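Researcher: Next sequence.
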Amino acid sequence: MRLRIFLFAVLIGFNLRAQEGEPHDEAQTPRVPRERIPPAPALAPDQALKTFKLQLGFRLELVAGEPLVQDPVQIAFDPDGRLWVLEMRGFMRNLEDTGAFEKIGSVAVLEDTDGDGRMDRRTVFLDGLVMPRALALARDGALVAEPPNLWFCRDTNGDLRCDEKVMVANDYATEDAPKLGPRANPEHAANGLLRALDNWIYSANHTARFRDTDGTWQREATIFRGQWGISQDDFGRLFYNANEDPLRADFVPSAYLGRNPHYRNAAGVNVKLYDEKAVWPIRVNPGVNRGYRPEQLRPDGTLATFTAACAPLVYRGDNFPREFEGNVFVCEPAGNLIRRYTLEEHGVGFKATNACRQAEFLASTDERFRPVNLSNGPDGCLYLVDMYHGILQHRIYLTGYLRQQTLDRGLDRPVDLGRIYRVVSESQPPGARPQLSKAGAEELVKHLSHPNGWWRDTAQRLLVERNDSSALAALKQLATAGANPLGRLHALWTLEGTRQVDFATLKRAIADAHPKVRASAMRISEPLLKNQPELIDELLAHAGDAAPEAQLQLAFTLGEVKEPRAEEALAKMVSRNATNACLRDAVITGLGGRELEFLERLLADNNWNAPKAGAEKLLGALARCVFIEANPDRVNRLLDLAASRPVSESWQRLALLDGVIDAAPAGSAARIKPVRLNAEPPALAALATLKEVEDRAKKIAGLITWPGKPGARPEVAAKPLTAEEQKRFEQGKELFLVSCGACHQPHGLGQEGLAPPLVDSEWVLGPPQRVVRIVLHGLHGPVNVKGKTFQLDMPALGVFEDDQIAAILTYIRREWGHTAGPVESDLVKKIRAETEKREEAWTEAELLKIP
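Model: Next structure:
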């Protein structure tokens, strides 16, 4: 999944063959005649303003332009309304990308000293950076991502200049680390650094989240999200996107979904929100990547669908009319436009629709307009970051077609430009400039109920960072009795961030009138459940909560309570809502190792005698978990349970058996590793005599084995690892968990739409020469794994040393019951040298040619 931010010019008159980033056998014939393509000169900011078409009722204002700002890629407003700008000046300064590793990137602070809405003073907070790519304000400074490091940069004397740098992580955006040289890839590396409602800082394109606790930085694994840019709504739900995939969201906190190693692909995260991908530019776009393909452009030469979607932003300001609250804006720099999506609630989730029929909220006829980020401002306006850079496709993916377009159109010059705009509603003036850096605790607590999300977020951050005891009483009062539910919500999370939440506050918040406040209180209560069991009583009292979001969160939270009454409540909840996929999966994620007992509880309940909607899926999912666990005694119990179903409840038997069969990929041509039992299961023979399940019994027989089973493959004993190989295995385990585990998961079963399984994968267990190449250079889909096709891209991990790659591969080839041989660092070194000049990812066809 590369962020395809493309060059825009056109080549007419002859064909070019694809280069580095493209298939080598695809002709790239221009489809738009030269005479139909308008020129694309670099315009002065005031001239550029005339090229925009904006939805009625709004105006666009210039906030800053070159030379005050150059190559901006992200902005952030500090508590006093000063604008911090991250400048990636090293990006593609020419077609050869020379200068990419020059120390010319910076973080600048802009100020409007005369109050006219335009910035007029620039202070360089930090310079000498190599390709900086993410920024988040924190305490007396900022988090700054400079691959492969994430720095906490402090201003210790109040002069707005960094004088102290502390490393928070040394594996952030490693794909763009300078040590990779020509293989460094800025299009596929971590970015974003969004401080969310739950006090964690999330990134796009990264699998770790960070948290500042009294000045100490914590780190936890999280799921992979999107490509470039990340946002949240008023309730902390995360939004992201990638290229042709304009908008996705997490409906639920992702941390819950990985807690059951036997259950794969639980619903609720990485949810596609849109039904169609059409875009509506106001100029021809022949220079987009794959603009030579018939389906990429309309007959009039305009871009047909999203190709470089990035930087989603949920509007949470108070300058726009009320119907804009919660709308999501998405940048499309390839089409020189910004999309506005409205969201329609559907239970705990929503669907997105283009708010402008066959049009866009904002579009430009200036081909150099490159909206690469958005921000909510303290004045309630929507801020746009325009990199205003002719070349937007990185060299790694630059084809001869796009290179020639750039030269023909002069898009490679000039450089060091950039603009920041704001969209202002004509219905009311922008809000006042904040002065929060010196605000007291009482004032900050009041701002937790501000109608503008920027003020609420900033007040929460400052209160958490200061952890001032004088705010405690006001916070508890707001959390339990505040008039604004958003204020109550922020007060709860501020108490969580300062570790000052208590039973009395939670008891009242769990009974709050607003379902999303109730849900947050339930979630926040979890660390207290072990030592304050009376909280469990409060939770159980809400087992009948009809609000979808509260009900769903209660299912997640009760999954943290390992006691019978919690499971009884979960059984009742899921019985009432068996068709609710998110709720069903929430329950199962909390049952790791107890799925069989939960199944037995359900089947013993007379309410489950007759079939009902969704019941088969629930029973099947639980059975699948038991089979994936592969415990011989428990698999036997499961088969006994299926065989013992009375005729009147035969639907249960079918559901259980189908769940077991679903544990194997449908239609797989790959050999599936069978579950090994201690002896032939009597229940299997009994099932084989039942005509209605005879075929199912045969399929299940192929998924299990036992000593002496006729025709069974003999079990191959793994050759013991030497002491040195075992040490390598242990090192690989540590590296895997911090690098690969967030996508492929610690259990190796992968994630739907993100990463294929490693367990029993033919790529993991096959020739090591292939998997070494995948790690060194990445893999470009489609790729078949265990009979299923994955249209996914895996980034290169060549930043790791040879011995580290050997360790990771040794680990995955010997973990999860695997018996493949270890990988030696000498092999990695040899292949790295042989493929030194390769820049593109491998394809399946190429790898299969390697013995």
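Model: Residues 723-739 form the longest helix (17 residues). The chain is about 30% helix and 20% strand.
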